[in-house]
Amino acid sequence: MLRRTIRATDIESPDELIELLDRHSYLADEGLATAAFLALRMGRPLFLEGEAGVGKTELAKTLAALLDAPLIRLQCYEGLDAAQALYDWDFARQLLHLKAAEAAGIADVGRLEGEIYDRRFLIARPLLKAIETQPSVLLVDEIDRADDEFEAFLLEVLSDFTISIPELGTVKAATPPVVVVTSNRTREVHDALKRRCLYHWLEHPGFEREVAILRRRLPACTETLAAQVARAAGRLRQADLVKPPGVAETLDWTEALLTLGAEELDPGRAAATLGAALKYREDVAAVLGNGLLDKVLPDKVRPDKVRPGHE
Fold first, then answer.
1. How far apart (Å, rounded) are the C-alpha atoms in residues 48 and 136?
2. How far apart are CA 151 and CA 273, in angstroms?
3. Which helix (H) or strand (E) holds 200?
4. What would the mean pLDDT of 198-213 be, rounded to a whole number?
5. Is the model's pLDDT at 113 over the cut of 60?
6. How far is CA 243 from the centre of its chain?
7. Is the peptide bond before 205 cis (omega within 30 degrees of 0)?
8. Cα–Cα distance for residue pair 229/297, rounded to 1 Å
9. What b-and-e string marks burial along 153-189, b requiring 16 or more CB atoms within 10 Å of the CB?
């Protein structure tokens, strides 16, 4: 039986989106599902802010999977400019074409100019690729790392999904891509860009949800181990650390423990695998050197003690 392709406009409610995301092992709460649903139905970019590792990028990947659409990722960084995000000309291929034309005795300058600026010599970067691909999911990841100038340029592109290429003309999206913009809030993003989007702040999951995420993503993880790791991660987030663990780090930590054959979060294995949860030397030293590990490690949690609302 052929699987029906789901379009963004086919999703009828936030609850249905929660169910679809759940089928792809992404457990969204009502607030996130509502923001994502409205973005899909209204054709607006979804702007997600939150600490690193809380699932912002993963949501874009999951939306691409459930919509059966390619994920086109624009990773932002300081110094990123429009050319690197839009398109570039393949100068090496253009030069080879000119040499081949010269060898063939073609001397018509006008013809050669038209040929070397043909679409086949154009390299589509993420923004142009997303505009030309229907359907697609465009992930603009960590926009807070880009410069103000690029942010202003991106605002213009997201306004009408139109790109002007002087040598070829205007390219406009027949169907705008689904757009997810993420920020870790290393700097404030300008209000103009936020106004163009639907905004949602993504929190770390609560205890019960994090246990569910660990069990779903790592089926070999027992409920006891999941509960202990989730409890420890929650306590680490309350400590004065440079970078507290996000869900991504909690998953890494649990997978590392499972790889070592752990069934519970005992002090020895917790210390040995702490580098899976903490990524800064100062944080590891603080947890191991100041007796913080003993305070972070939870009491024994039996499966029957894991219950909804238990924070």
1. 18
2. 39
3. strand 198-201
4. 95
5. yes
6. 18
7. no
8. 8
9. bbbebbeebebeeeeeeebebeebbbbbbbbbeeeeb
For residues 230 and 247, give the distance between their C-alpha atoms in angstroms, rounded to a whole number: 9
Residue with tokens 């086919």: 10
Residues paired with residue 71 on neighbouring β-strands, in sequence order: 137
pLDDT tens-digit profile of 51-110? Answer: 989 999 999 999 999 999 999 999 999 999 988 999 998 888 888 887 887 777 776 656
CA–CA distance, 19 with 11 (Å, rounded to integer)? 10
**Residue 124 Rama label (left phi>0; alpha psi -120 to 50; beta):** beta
Structure confidence by residue, pLDDT tens digits, 247-297:
999 999 999 999 999 999 999 999 999 999 999 999 999 999 877 888 888
Q: What is the DSSP letter of 265?
A: -
Cβ-based burial of 269 (10 A; exposed 0-12, middle 13-18, buried ≥19) = middle
DSSP 54-76: SSHHHHHHHHHHHTT--EEEEE-
- Other CB atoms within 10 A of residue 35 CB: 23
Residue 164: φ, ψ to 5°: -100, 120
Please, are residues 67 and 132 in contact by the beta-carbon 8 Å criterion? no
> Which tokens belong to 298?
């939870």
Q: Which residues make beta-bridge pairs with 47?
A: 181, 199
CA 123 to chain centre: 24
Helix (H) / strand (E) containing 282: helix 281-289
- Check if the beta carbon of residue 117 is closer than 8 Å to that of residue 49: no
Residue 124: Cβ within 10 Å count: 18
Residue with tokens 């034309």, as numbered in its chain: 101
The structure tokens listed for 203 are: 């929190």
pTM here? 0.86
**Burial (CB count within 10 angstroms: exposed 0-12, middle 13-18, buried 19+), residue 202:** buried
Contact between 87 and 122 (Cβ < 8 Å): yes
